[in-house]
Design brief:
Blueprint: H1 3-22, H2 33-45, H3 49-62, H4 67-78, E1 96-99, E2 106-111, H5 122-129, E3 135-139, H6 158-171, E4 176-182, H7 185-196, E5 200-204, H8 221-230, H9 238-243, E6 250-256, H10 260-266, E7 275-280, H11 288-294, H12 298-306
Parallel strand pairs: 2-3, 2-4, 4-5, 5-6, 6-7
Antiparallel strand pairs: 1-3
Helix pairs in contact: 1-2, 2-3, 3-4
Length: about 325
């Protein structure tokens, strides 16, 4: 797609979003449903969830077999009402967004994936995550390097980013640290969780092994090839790191039983004593977050994940 075509598409999406926002009529049948879907998704990314939900229902009425519209409607139907969540205002250009919880000593680091979301846009996800008894730190790696070079807004490299995150966690009275990753963010959640001494790590359909040969002919092949070009020696073997750790975090990996590449990634940690798996039956999608929401299991899973460990694990200094 050329730059002019891309700009034209973005302008069209904004025009559609504005029409939905202002209640102007739209003839959904006169346009490719994918174009409408992108406009509605943009509204969700910008936090205009009521307008996005209205647009999704109009889209489904016009294209009842369009799976994306069906998924959107199911997600909005199951989304918790805006009542009791920690205050959050989306800023899509920020690498780090901090949402403090004054009554909790738990801190949850949330590592976004390639699309800079956690399966769904952050304003959508916060309807669930904002109900958790923990301070939240949303993280995005705009360089798409698996957070291996750190985040420039926190420091010049990964070591400086780790130091900055320790300071942020301390400022939030964080005595219990947890990490969560979605897709490529799972590698970072596992990596940072180990170095920060997290109590536990959870990954949703995540990339775990960054070996070039291992990822040949997978959806991650080009992304990992680019990583190795920019950081030839940047990746570590997470299985080796966790196997050799004096005290590794407990880890839970969720994937679909029909998503062969995600299962292949998860199996690289099989047999480690602190690692458990949840392979969803009849699920072939990479977006297991959406599937868990559909099944009513997403929030209960995270609440269980944050429950105190029987060994009383704490964030290392």
């Amino acid at each position: 797609m050329s730059t002019s075509e891309s700009l034209s598409r973005i302008e069209a999406e904004r025009a559609v979003a504005a029409a939905l926002r202002e209640g102007r009529p739209l003839d959904f049948a006169r346009r490719d449903p994918g174009a409408w879907a992108r406009a509605i998704d943009r509204l969700g990314c910008e936090g205009e969830l009521a307008v996005a939900a209205h647009g999704a229902r109009l889209l489904q009425e016009t294209f009842p077999r369009f799976a994306f519209a069906q998924n959107l409607c199911e997600m909005y139907d199951r989304m918790p009402v805006a009542d009791g969540q920690l205050p959050f205002a989306e800023a899509g250009d920020k690498e780090v967004q901090i949402v403090p919880h004054s009554a909790s000593d738990a801190v949850l680091l949330l590592f976004c994936g390639r699309s800079h979301r956690l399966g769904l846009p952050l304003p959508v996800m916060h309807r669930w995550l904002g109900l958790l008894p923990a301070s939240l730190i949303y993280l995005r790696d705009f360089r798409l390097l698996f957070y291996l070079k750190g985040l420039p807004s926190l420091g010049a490299d990964r070591a400086a980013t780790l130091a900055a995150l320790r300071e942020i966690v301390a400022s939030l009275n964080g005595r219990r640290l947890f990490c969560c990753g979605s897709s490529v963010g799972t590698y970072a959640a596992l990596h940072y969780g180990l170095d920060l001494g997290a109590e536990a790590v959870i990954g949703f359909a995540g990339t775990i092994k960054l070996d070039l040969q291992f990822n040949q002919q997978t959806p991650m092949e080009q992304t990992i090839a680019r990583l190795h070009q920019e950081l030839p020696n940047g990746a570590i073997d997470l299985r080796e790191a966790y196997a050799g750790a004096e005290r590794a975090p407990r880890v839970h990996i969720v994937c679909g039983d029909g998503a062969w590449d995600d299962r292949m990634q998860a199996e690289t940690l099989a047999g480690l004593p602190t690692v458990t798996f949840d392979c969803l039956n009849d699920c072939a999608t990479h977006n297991v977050t959406m599937e868990l929401i559909r099944r009513g299991q997403y929030l209960p899973l995270l609440e269980s994940f944050l429950a105190p460990a029987t060994d009383g694990g704490r964030c290392r200094d």
